[in-house]
């Protein structure tokens, strides 16, 4: 350091860290109590609850569009040591489940942050696929995991319209455009095509679970991937989960008693704001509200499969 006319001049030999202000902060920090000198570790908590699918703006379903910003926000929490997924989902769309799972894995690798999945009520089917984004899966002893399979459900109305005297007329270009039409008798060829699609999705699901749970799976493929589901203790025995626990106690055991939790959630929804203001719905919003109610009923039916 050289002086000229009373002013300090920085020379090439001056260390870049030789900053008077920085040194002052360093001295002050040494005088602070130890609990203030060492900031508490932070865990970003991301709740993922509901059936999985695109849905409408009024539904509580999970989709990539709805949760992308929340996932990004969880991995952007300042000072985060890990991301904790709190999962309550009976499944739904395999595509949306896969998109969400891959986004979490990509950000985990990019930010070099470990991911923990905490299963509360259920992580089944697509819900379990999302749980596989975690490095460890931890579950409540009464939670349900598994259902690694693919299901499609519909109704047949061909006898109903015949009974009430309705004739349905459909004109198509392409012989498979009316595949699985609920107003026509079931076609064995259509059923076989659907089964082939299901097998492909199932194979992808199995490969994903084997990749993410490599070295941990203990059951036979025929059992693990049959679509069966289990309570957490049995799922742990089969290697589908790692431990019993909850987010608070587990994270405190891993990162210390002073760990802080930052929950990442979306702002209060449009429906709640509108109801609070007593405003009117537009025709489009009314239709979306109806779709949301129907989606909620469908989600309730899916959860009922697991006794929830």
From TrEMBL:
Pfam family, one: Peptidase_S49
Positions of region (Disordered): 1-22
Molecular function (Gene Ontology), one example: serine-type peptidase activity
Record keywords: Hydrolase, Protease, Serine protease
Domain Peptidase S49: 110-251
Family: Belongs to the peptidase S49 family.
Protein name stated in the entry: S49 family peptidase
